[in-house]
Amino acid sequence: MIRGFLRNLIANSITVRIIHTSLFSFLCYLTIGFLLAVLPGFLHLHLGFSPLWAGVAVSSQYLATLVTRPTAGRMTDVIGPRATVLLGQLVLLLSALCLLAAASLQAKALACFVVLLMSRVILGCGESCVATGAITWGLGRVAPEYAAQVISWGGIASYSAMAAGAPLGIWLESRYGLWSIGAAASGISLLSLALALPLAGVPTVRGTQLAFRGVLARVALHGLGLTLGTMGFAAIASFTGLYYASRHWTDPALALVLFGGCFIVTRLLFADTVNRWDGFRVAMVSFIVESAGLFVLWSATTHDVALAGAALSGCGFALVFPALGAEALKTVAVQNHGSALGVYTAFLDLAMGITGPIAGFIVGRFGYPAIFLYGSGAAGCAFVITLLLYHLVREQRARVSRGTPGRLETEAVG
Questions:
Q1: Which of 11, 80, 129, 410 is most exposed by smallest CB count within 10 Å?
Q2: What is the C-alpha to C-alpha distance for residues 330 and 320, in angstroms, rounded to an integer?
Q3: Residue 248 is part of a domain; what is its CATH number?
Q4: What's the structural domain count of the chain?
Q5: Cα 157 to the center of its chain, rounded Å
């Protein structure tokens, strides 16, 4: 009887159904988080590579995700999100096995670096399939009006996983070595695959499939705002450890945990504001808060002030992805949601991919604090772009109300 009640609860609860598919994103990004704070220091301090090459290694994963994300989005529209997620989970397992191989080559720095790059590239391909497929899977299990909640929970899953994975990765590497991270990632990939196999898929929606160029034209400005807003997060996630070391501060994991904790709390408390206030307005407020937090982090002279900056940045960045994402999905018909989501999310990968080398260059010229000033300025630019996009969409919607729809609205409902 209790078992039947729980089964019915899971089947009928919108939140539980959303969380169910978001769990696959959580496990995917938990394995990604393991190396976030470990990899730059491992390559620079242990293997002897420069901060620039450390940034290249970090960014290789995101560049691979950037290239494959549109394809993953198209796959969810054609073969279904369930098959896309299962394929991605197998690729993540292969990446973890490559990481184990790299751990055995630490005595040969160049060989270790090459295998690590292979692992990162494979990881990026798996991420694109799992992350895009899981959100699209969630969208197919609920009504369209819950799209913002699905995207929000996908973000909660991914960023909370990275926030949890970063300190856990630091602990594993410091206590057991790099091989333990590969072993943990392998186990988590197998667990994720086992949890996904019993879950039923959702039917694909038939209709005209927009070409990549058409989808890109509709979500490009939304994605550009996401790219600029994500650069601050990328700097915090990848270089906080080295920034703390340059200041002779201890416990950099605390800053990452605080960033992630504020991110999650803000998502949970204010996720419904996207539907109530309009995604563009929520995004603009978010960019202001994020820019202020990164500015505080840049100007910090004590550990406590740096923690405050990380917390404020987490609050600001929390709603950027769902706010702009919900607006991006409105520009295409439902049968193209997977493609639109894949292209839109690729802009996040673009930010994570280019921030590593840029930050490495900035560190070499101006020191570690300068990367947070760079992130603050990028968030400010994102605010300006979102403001312009907001006014553009308002004008288009006004034309629709007068009976003269613009191109975006005509094709989104067509």
A1: 11
A2: 16
A3: 1.20.1250.20
A4: 1
A5: 9
